[in-house]
Amino acid sequence: MSTPASSLLGRKILLGVCGSIAAYKAALVVRLLVKVGAEVQVVLTPSALAFVTPLTLSTLSKKPVLQGFLKDEVAGEWHNHVHLGLWADALVVAPASANTLGHLANGLCDTLLDAVYLSARCPVFVAPAMDLDMYQHPATQANLRHLRQYGTTVWDSPAGELASGLSGPGRMLEPEAIVASLEDFFQEKKEQQ
User: Fold this and answer.
1) Helix (H, G, I), strand (E, B) or coil at 128
2) At residue 85, does pLDDT exceed 70?
3) Do 23 and 17 contact (CB within 8 A), yes or no?
4) Do residues 88 and 8 lie in contact, with contact meaning Cβ atoms separated by under 8 Å?
5) Does an H or E element contain 87, and which?
6) Global pTM value
7) Confidence (pLDDT) at 70
8) Domain ranges, ordered by start, for the chain
9) What is the pLDDT of residue 3?
10) In whole angstroms, what is the distance from residue 62 CA to residue 53 CA?
11) Which CATH number does 15-161+168-192 carry?
């Protein structure tokens, strides 16, 4: 008996990775998405480079990782954020740092990921990841409310042990749960057609 094809088969997923200790989990998100047949394009924020390497993510996604606006500074070639926003079936930001959440919620645009978000016409999903006090801060909670008001799906941050040693919400949703949530979303979309 064969298993049914994943609803992510052939889907184009933009994965934004931000500066967070949870960035190492992005590699597994990429691996799981590719395994079910999705095409994954990774966009790193500058601070993500302190936590995960482009080589790891490009090897898993089989695509060059995008890191900034310019491809080739000398030639003036750039990564077209508008094209990326139109190409994608979904934009997933995992992990989504407090800094990036603030940028997205307030229309700040100094990274390629910010520009892609502002250009995206596809559904957007964010998986917050930060320490307990940062997550619970009123500014972060206001940013999450704003994103929800804009139609962004904000996945709940599970409670557990954090890198600081504190315990509570702030952990990134596990990669398997992210992929399962995306599969459910696209399956529901398919059934509505």
Assistant:
1) strand
2) yes
3) yes
4) no
5) helix 81-87
6) 0.93
7) 54
8) 15-161+168-192
9) 58
10) 14
11) 3.40.50.1950
- Kind of pairing between the strands at 90-96 and 159-161: unpaired
| Calpha distance 97→103 (Å, rounded) | 10
Question: With the CA atoms of 139, 67, 33 and 29 taken in that order, what torsion angle do they form, in degrees rounded to the nearest 10?
Answer: -50
Residue with tokens 């009123």: 138
Distances (CA, A) of 137 to 28, 43, 111, 149, 170: 29, 27, 24, 19, 11
Q: Are 176 and 32 in contact (CB under 8 A)?
A: yes
What backbone torsions phi and psi does residue 64 show, to the nearest 5 degrees?
-60, 140
Quick one: which of 90, 107, 106 has its CA closest to 153? Answer: 90
The residue type found at 185 is: F
pLDDT of 91-146, one tens digit each? 999 999 999 999 999 999 899 999 999 999 999 999 999 999 999 999 999 999 99
Helices (H) and strands (E) in the chain, counts: 8, 9
45: its two tokens: 């924020």
Token pair listed for 100: 């990036």
